[in-house]
Inverse folding.
């Protein structure tokens, strides 16, 4: 019996030591996890997520096709990709209660492929900590980025929300680049600043930015050098407002000890050339208070800001359209910087007055004189030859921008529906202000006006599906029109001008009232024959309908001597196989299929078998608990389909009696299940192996002694 007690004590000590070891291992694991300096959210699983139907989030890759994360021209190895849908936001929700990180950081924006598809569209990003909004950026413009730096010290839940923005456009594939938890609040975007050196704002990033287009840093929207009033600047910020929607940049300057904000502002040179005399407004706010402004700055002029920011926390730069409410306002904050003094010897002296004269010179008239002198550069017209209108000049012309002849507003070739034209007129209307060109044709004997019209290719790419209207008037009477022509489509005018004196070409915004309407009158010309000539001489053909995998295309040819044309078919093109996707989902026991579809038409071009996945054993679960007298049962199921893979019996536990007691003169003890065991007498001493000892009250020892005694009987 002494040996039995010795073995029992040893077993209890081993169990105790094992429990202590388990707790130590758990503590060591928690400590090791907490010692990681930073944790990328793409490396852990969210507790829940939500995005477009049928899509799953992308972790460290773009969700749609597994390509790298690309944001504002920068490729990121770590991050999350998602896409909100019409009427609902995309979400990531994380349980961070098991961590002791203090900061969440991420760089957010619309992925570059959607920026290219729809520049100027907007997306919103929000960060919630324990259900409360911690930070957000509303209507972040495509091509811009915003950096979140949010305190999560002691938080239990982190929620990242991506919304479609106020434009309600769903083309919002978005990236949370380098989304991570860490221990500090260092902003990786701001480079270190040497003491005594100025900080150019184009070398850091605002905490929020809104604009019709931009901002762009150290270059304009086309990636060219910043040109302001004839001077090229290496440093600065380019941005573009809209009527009733100023462009804003807000900077957190609380971490610096600079004393002065400095910038030279004005309209970019190309916009001055396109619309001289137009106006802009620039304002600077310090901690929410207006510090300085220049209102209705005339295109071609500049203004210098030198603002005291000593002890300031926030700097806001606002750019707005002037009182003329014209949107052609690509603008520059040249050499925008924070510095330590208010007189920078490197800056040119400021001799002109800060504000423009009270009575500035009258803007030149928009329209040229009604009867300008004959342009000696107009080439003579040979009898029988067509006269391209871009080789002469109208007697009057009005437009938001233009007209430009044989080139667009940037001096580039005319591109319409995928075809380049050597001859034509480029112009741009505005809502409520149509573009018009009026020609005196009384001195000619042409009989037909001919042109192919539509939206310029770059504006089609910027806003597909938008609408335009074109009209042709002969001697003041509407001769032909196309209303709400969809961007990407073209229309051909063939208008009789026999004996006419005046021809007017009108370009207007469509019923959608969108201003993104750079437009082309391609091959606009006067001819002497409507449909035929002695012998057609066909020019270079142009594709009017591109062939697809399913439909033939069309190639159109124009006669160089008249306005006759012909159309020929272009054969269908082969299918373009895309990446493999799921046809039928494979199950644990049944094979599925993978399909390869054409990227153009979506037709399945190849199919392959996807083997059954096989069962994935899950954890063992008890389905029937054992009792004192009956065995229990446990089973293992497949994690995927729930099929029971294996079953095992759990042995009955046997009775587990409590302490002995006395009932009606008998000693009795009761099992947890209610079973009773009796023995005669009331003695509290028990004799075992000739040794008399007191009955122990510990449940386990009592059970063992009673069991030993039963065995002896």
């Amino acid at each position: 019996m002494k040996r039995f007690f010795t073995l029992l004590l040893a077993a209890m000590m081993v169990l105790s030591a094992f429990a202590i070891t388990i707790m130590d291992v758990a503590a060591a694991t928690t400590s090791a996890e907490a010692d990681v300096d930073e944790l990328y959210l793409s490396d852990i699983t969210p507790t829940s997520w939500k995005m477009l139907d049928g899509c799953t989030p992308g972790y460290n890759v773009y969700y749609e096709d597994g390509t790298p994360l690309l944001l504002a021209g920068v490729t990121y190895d770590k991050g999350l990709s998602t896409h909100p849908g019409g009427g609902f936001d995309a979400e990531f929700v994380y349980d961070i209660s098991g961590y002791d990180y203090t900061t969440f950081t991420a760089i957010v924006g619309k992925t570059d492929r959607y920026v290219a598809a729809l520049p100027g569209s907007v997306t919103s990003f929000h960060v919630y900590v324990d259900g409360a909004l911690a930070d957000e950026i509303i209507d972040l413009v495509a091509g811009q980025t915003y950096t979140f730096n949010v305190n999560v010290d002691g938080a239990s839940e982190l929620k990242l929300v991506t919304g479609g923005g106020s434009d309600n456009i769903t083309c919002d594939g978005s990236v949370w680049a380098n989304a991570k938890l860490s221990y500090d609040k260092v902003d990786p975007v701001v480079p270190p600043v040497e003491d005594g050196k100025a900080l150019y704002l184009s070398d850091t990033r605002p905490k929020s930015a809104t604009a019709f287009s931009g901002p762009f840093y150290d270059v304009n929207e086309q990636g060219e050098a910043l040109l302001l009033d004839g001077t090229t600047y290496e440093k600065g910020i380019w941005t573009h407002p809209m009527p009733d929607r100023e462009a804003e940049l807000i900077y957190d300057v609380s971490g610096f000890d600079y004393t002065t904000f400095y910038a030279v502002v004005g309209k970019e040179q190309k916009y001055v050339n396109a619309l001289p005399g137009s106006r802009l407004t620039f304002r600077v706010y310090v901690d929410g208070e207006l510090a300085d402004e220049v209102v209705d700055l005339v295109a071609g002029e500049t203004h210098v800001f030198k603002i005291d920011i000593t002890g300031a926390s926030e700097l806001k730069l606002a750019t707005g359209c002037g009182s003329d409410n014209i949107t052609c306002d690509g603008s520059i904050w040249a050499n925008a910087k924070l510095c330590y003094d208010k007189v920078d010897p490197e800056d040119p002296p400021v001799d002109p007055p800060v504000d423009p004269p009270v009575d500035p010179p009258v803007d030149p008239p928009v329209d040229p004189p009604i009867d300008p002198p004959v342009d000696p550069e107009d080439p003579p017209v040979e009898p029988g030859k067509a006269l391209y209108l871009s080789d002469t000049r109208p007697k009057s012309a009005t437009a938001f921008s233009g007209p430009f002849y044989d080139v667009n507003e940037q001096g580039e070739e005319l591109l319409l529906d995928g075809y380049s034209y050597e001859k034509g007129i480029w112009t741009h209307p505005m809502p409520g202000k149509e573009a018009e060109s009026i020609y005196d044709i009384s001195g000619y004997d042409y009989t037909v006006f001919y042109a192919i019209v539509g939206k310029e290719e770059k504006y089609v790419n910027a806003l597909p599906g938008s609408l335009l209207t074109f009209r042709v008037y002969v001697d003041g009477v509407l001769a032909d029109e196309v209303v709400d022509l969809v961007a990407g489509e073209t229309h051909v005018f063939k208008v009789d001008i026999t004996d006419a004196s005046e021809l007017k070409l009108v370009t207007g915004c469509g019923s959608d009232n969108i201003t993104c309407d750079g437009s082309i009158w391609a091959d606009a010309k006067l001819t002497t024959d409507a449909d035929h000539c002695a012998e057609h001489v066909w020019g270079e053909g142009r594709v009017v309908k591109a062939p697809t995998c399913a439909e033939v295309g069309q190639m159109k040819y124009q006669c160089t001597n008249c306005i006759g044309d012909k159309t020929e078919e272009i054969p269908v093109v082969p299918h373009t196989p895309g990446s493999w996707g799921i046809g039928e989902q494979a199950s644990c026991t049944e094979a599925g299929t993978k399909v390869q579809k054409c990227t153009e038409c979506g037709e399945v071009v190849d199919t392959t078998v996807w083997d059954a996945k096989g069962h994935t054993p899950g954890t063992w679960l008890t389905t029937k608990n054992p009792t004192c007298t009956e065995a229990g049962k446990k089973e293992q199921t497949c994690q995927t389909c729930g099929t029971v893979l294996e079953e095992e019996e759990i042995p009955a536990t046997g009775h587990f009696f409590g302490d002995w007691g006395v009932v009606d003169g008998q000693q009795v003890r009761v099992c947890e299940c209610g079973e009773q065991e009796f023995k005669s007498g009331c003695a509290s001493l028990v004799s075992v192996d000739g040794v008399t000892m007191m009955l122990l009250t510990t449940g386990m020892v009592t059970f063992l002694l009673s069991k030993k005694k039963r065995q002896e009987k």
Summary: Residues 4-35, 185-192, 342-381, 682-713 have pLDDT under 50 and may be disordered. The two ends are 16 Å apart (CA to CA). Residues 1 and 7 are 10 Å apart (CA to CA). Helices lie at 2-34, 112-117, 269-274, 457-462, 699-712.
